[in-house]
Amino acid sequence: MAKAKTSSFIHEFPLLVSNRQETKLLARMDMARQLYNACLGEALRRLALLRQSKKYQAARRVNREDKKARSKAFKDANQHYGFTEYGLHKFAIRVKNACHIGDHLDVHTVQKTASRAFCAVMMFAVTKRGRPRFKGQGQLLSVESKSNAAGIRFRACKNRSHVLWSGLALPVILDRKDRHGVQAHALSCKIKYVRLICRKYNGKNRFYAQLVLEGLPKQKSKNIVSDAAVCLDLGPSTYALYSPGIADLQQFCKELKPVHKKMRVLQRALDRSRRVNNPDNYNQNGTVKTGARVWKQSGRYKDAKAALSGIFNRQAAYRKTLHGKLANEVLAIGKIIKLEDVSYKSFQKNYGKSTGFRAPGMFVSMLRRKAVSAGGKVIDLPARKLKLSQVCQCGEVVKKALSERWHICDCGVRAQRDLYSAFLGYHVKDGVLDTAMAAAAWPGAESLLEQAVSRLIHQSANEGKNFPQSFGLRRRQSGLPAKEDFAKVDTLDAVAVAPQAPSARAWEKLLVQYDPQNPRF
Fold first, then answer.
1. Which of 61, 256, 355, 388 is 20 to 30 Å apart from 179, CA to CA?
2. Residue 423 falls inside a structural domain
């Protein structure tokens, strides 16, 4: 009988590791990498044999509506060719006992590493992910055990807690203050298993222990959670949200400063160093030769590589902080979150630079996790069916180009496109837009959406920054709003006098005189 699944959360502790312990940990992680590659190759081989078999072809021909018979047919085919998790466990144990890997890894860590390889191949088999790749040296820096009873174990003591693993006792650095009681709550929960992770910061290795705990994480007292509902319209670089009484339009992760120039400088330096130190690895046209190659790395190359890695790590850590802050702000408005089920892979294809910089998909994953732990949920709205960016509350559907950032309808509705999509998404019930409810709520919501745009204009004027194009609020280089329609006049044969730049008071008057009926000012 399968075990009942329970909710889980992770709490991370830094470890105090000596130089000798670091050498042993890195050696064991490299053994886990070699074992993972062996299990991955074996799983791919068994999958290829399975797909060529007659049993697999017969299972594919089973009627899809008969789910039990179809599942049983695939299960029998998998067991016949050993393409199962436990079948790969047996292979991993044979590999461990036949070579030097058995001197470094215990049986529980070996089985969990085999499970990791099998899950990667299984996701590829059901076409949920691409073909898994083999791990190069230094590319697998995490190991875990099956339970806290054997293998990698966490032991709490009065003086100091430790992580124990086959003769290694790694002291855990605890937070003595623990202002919000998060650490105390984590230590009071049941430990399912322990994961060891190695991260590189400024060219140095830092080790951490992740405790996978049973239950839900502790909600900090400063993070208030509301029982209301909120709709969030998330784009590659902007977001709009709406809830009764609240509407906001902002740039996504606006505090995150771009570091593309620094990264490009370091990447060009790394490429020049590789080409100078390894001329035999390149063809005459500058491309890399195929086949096995040996790369020489100078000291400056390693320093530049560590600097580039540090930039990525700092940016990722700050981005994660901003994601958590925004997720808490959304939960403070409402824990029932409505969100369009857009494809974030298409974001990567069409807006790769912005998506890689702000990572909206990672934010949505964090938002789902936080909503569930707070007792709420994220409701996915069918984007293709609803067409929130094209439909109006009167029922009219007009296809808009991506450059059209304002919703203007003959029924009199005029609003910023993202804000209006969030407004309509709030009134979706059971995957259907309730146009009657949206029309009844529009008189009170219209002023909220206008205030959100006006607040954005004032904020941008105070910070001295231009609007992103996706807001639909264009500006000239002088800082004045750009008009959508203007009269064309013939130029005169005269010397033009340069106009004076508007003063701060004149700019404030322009903002006060902002006309919401004219979305382009």
1. 256
2. yes
Domain assignment of residue 291, yes or no: no
First to last CA, the chain: 66
Q: Are residues 323 and 362 in the same domain?
A: yes
CB 62 within 8 A of CB 69: yes
How far is the C-alpha of 484 from the C-alpha of 265, rounded, in Å? Answer: 39
Distance of CA 445 to the CA centre of its chain: 32
To the nearest 10°, report the CA torsion of 100, 101, 107, 113. -160
Residue ranges with strand state E in 23-152: 142-144
Same domain, 155 and 230: no
Q: Are residues 354 and 232 in the same domain?
A: yes
Q: Domain range holding 181?
A: 1-16+141-218
**Based on the domain organization, do 108 and 63 belong to the same domain?**
yes
Alpha-carbon distance of 477 to 467, in angstroms, equals 12
* pTM across the whole model: 0.80
Q: What is the pLDDT of residue 379?
A: 94
Rounded CA separation 500/82 (Å) = 79
Answer yes or no: are the C-beta atoms of 35 and 96 closer than 8 Å. Answer: yes
Residue 511 near residue 459, CB atoms below 8 Å: no
Which token pair is 515? 């006309």
DSSP secondary structure code for residue 206 in this structure: E
Residue with token string 């820096």: 141
**Residue 508 and residue 474 in one domain:** yes
Domain for residue 292, yes or no?
A: no
Pairing of strands 229-234, 336-340: parallel
Tell me how far apart the 2 most distant CA atoms of the chain are, in Å: 92
Taking the CA atoms of the chain, what radius of gyration do you get in angstroms? 29
Name 384's Cβ contacts closer than 8 Å, sequence gap at least 6.
Answer: none
Same domain? For 401 and 412 the reply is yes
Burial class, 415, CB count within 10 angstroms (exposed 0-12 / middle 13-18 / buried 19+): buried
* Cβ atoms < 10 Å from Cβ of 504: 7
Spatial CB neighbours of 163, under 8 Å, sequence gap ≥ 6: 15, 152, 153, 154, 155, 169, 170, 172, 194, 196, 209
List 288's β-bridge partners, or say none. 282
- 10-residue averages of pLDDT along the chain (521 residues): 77 95 96 97 96 94 92 94 95 95 94 96 92 92 93 87 94 91 93 94 90 91 90 92 93 89 94 95 93 91 91 92 94 94 88 90 94 91 91 89 89 91 93 92 92 87 74 52 42 44 50 50 41
SS3 293: coil
- Which value, to the nearest 10 degrees, does the dihedral of the CA atoms of residues 496, 497, 501, 507 take? -70
Q: Which of 194, 208, 170, 316 is nearest to 253 (CA)?
A: 316
Tokens representing 301?
């190359």
- CA neighbor of 266 nearest in space, from 313, 302, 230: 302
Of 466, 477, 515, nearest to 499 by C-alpha is 477
Do 160 and 131 fall within a single domain? Answer: no
> Tokens standing for 248?
């906001």
